[in-house]
Structures are given as C-alpha cells and as structure tokens.
C-alpha cells in the first residue's frame, strides 16, 4: 500500500460507539448549542459554524476551521487525532447523484457545470441539516449523507426520508427555470463501520463509513431516475412506512450477492 494511501483506523470502539450510536453527552450538548447559531459551513462533528454571525461567535470562544482538517473545527480535529478509531452502528444513508452529468457538462461548459453541482450540494446540505443528518462526503457530482442514531436519534430513517423528500421537492422547483438540476436519490438503512481514517502519511484525518450498507445505498441511487427517490425495504421498515401493495420490487445490484427489494417514494 502506498505510504500516503487512506487507511481506516481501528480502536477506541467503546468511545466511538457512544458517539455514533448512543450519543456522547458532551458532544450532544455542543451540537445542541451550536445548532442555535446561524452560519455555514459547519464542523462535521460538533456542528460549530464557521461562517456568518455564528462563525464570529465561534471564533470568540476559540473555535475555527482546523488548518489540518478544514471540515472540522480545531477542537474536534484534536479529538480525532488523540482518539482515532470507530464502531459499527446502524444508520440511514442517502446518495444524491446528478443525472446526465457528462452531457450536461458538455452542453453548458465546465464553469456552469461546477455552479450546478454547487447548487445541488447546497440544496442537499440544507435539507440534511434541517433533518439532523450530516454530509459524510462529496464525490464529484454526488453527495453522501448519513444519519447515525447518536447524532440523529432512533428515528433516523424517518428523518432521512423527510430530508430526501425535501431535496427532491427543491430540485423539482428548478425545473421551472432555465437551468434545472436533475438528480436521483437512493436511501438505505443498515449497519456500517463509521470511523476515522488517515491519509497523506497521517497529515489528514477524516470520518468515513464502510460496509455493505454503503454499497447498497450507492447502487440503489444509480437506479433512481431523475427526480425519483428510491428506497430499500429496510428503510420502509425502519421508518415505519409501509409500501403500497405490490410497490416493492426485487433488483439485482452490482457487487451485491442477494437481491434487494426497493420502492419509489411518491
């Protein structure tokens, strides 16, 4: 493995299980307080705002984007550095992908395409934030959001569904303009290993998620048509939302051994 390859970090399982599954009391208290402050972007772990008035308040109490990991505040980055590791927890996962991205980029040009991706990202981030989720990762023209119960509560699947609906409705409104955003959304609920991982010879650390549940969510999103929310049966069960009779269908997903039952949300 190259020296600067990304490597998941193992250890401190009890601590990270408390953070991601149960809700660490200190971190949960910070999240509640910082949610009250306006401003984006925010720390990926404690939700301290970096911009706007909230960012000004955060700087007054010594919080700012970490020089090493700018998606985390300096306090959370120190925590990640001191306590690397992770734990397997049940969570809900959202993948939102632009449709027809290659043709769109060729038609409108690279600069306009980048602006379209930025608009989609803003839409998804705002919806995730309002429904207690957080962005795990941006991958090109895709956004990955997660709802671990330690951050989002036991009803994380319901919140993921609500966020997906909000994203779909917001993107549908762009169809009335000259520059519509066409994206498909996939949702799945299942166990994943949430952990810190290091890259660049340890000079950079992030929080990532690994496991079959992540693969299923990604594959389901590729089946969703533009403007469609495609969810697995596991999401329906966890969110206590029964699918209409005959609405569930079995699909074969690349790299997944067993068929998965999915349905489109109306």
From TrEMBL:
SMART domains: CYCc. GO terms for molecular function: adenylate cyclase activity. Gene3D superfamilies: Nucleotide cyclase (3.30.70.1230). Signal peptide: none annotated. This is Adenylate cyclase. GO terms for biological process: cAMP biosynthetic process; intracellular signal transduction. It comes from Paracoccus halophilus. Residues 92-221 form the Guanylate cyclase domain.
């Amino acid at each position: 493995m190259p020296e600067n390859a990304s490597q998941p970090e193992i250890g401190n399982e009890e601590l990270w299980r408390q953070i991601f599954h149960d809700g660490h009391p200190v971190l949960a208290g910070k999240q509640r307080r910082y949610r009250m402050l306006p401003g984006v972007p925010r720390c990926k772990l404690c939700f301290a705002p970096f911009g706007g008035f909230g960012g000004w308040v955060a700087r007054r109490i010594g919080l700012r984007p970490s020089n090493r990991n700018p998606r985390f505040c300096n306090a959370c980055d120190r925590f990640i550095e001191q306590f690397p590791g992770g734990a397997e927890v049940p969570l809900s996962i959202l993948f939102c992908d632009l449709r027809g991205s290659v043709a769109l980029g060729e038609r409108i040009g690279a600069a306009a395409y980048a602006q379209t991706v930025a608009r989609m990202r803003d839409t998804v981030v705002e919806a995730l934030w309002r429904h207690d989720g957080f962005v795990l990762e941006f991958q090109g023209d895709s956004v990955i959001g997660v709802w671990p119960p330690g951050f989002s509560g036991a009803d994380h699947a319901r919140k993921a569904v609500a966020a997906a609906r909000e994203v779909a409705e917001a993107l549908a409104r762009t169809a009335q303009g000259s520059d519509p955003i066409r994206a498909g959304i996939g949702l799945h609920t299942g166990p994943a290993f949430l952990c810190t991982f290091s890259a660049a010879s340890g000079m950079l650390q992030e929080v990532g998620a690994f496991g079959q549940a992540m693969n299923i969510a990604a594959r389901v999103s590729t089946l969703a048509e533009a403007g469609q929310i495609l969810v697995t049966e596991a999401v329906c069960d966890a969110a206590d939302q029964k699918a209409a009779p005959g609405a569930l269908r079995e699909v074969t997903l690349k790299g997944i051994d067993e068929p998965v039952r999915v349905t489109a949300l109306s």
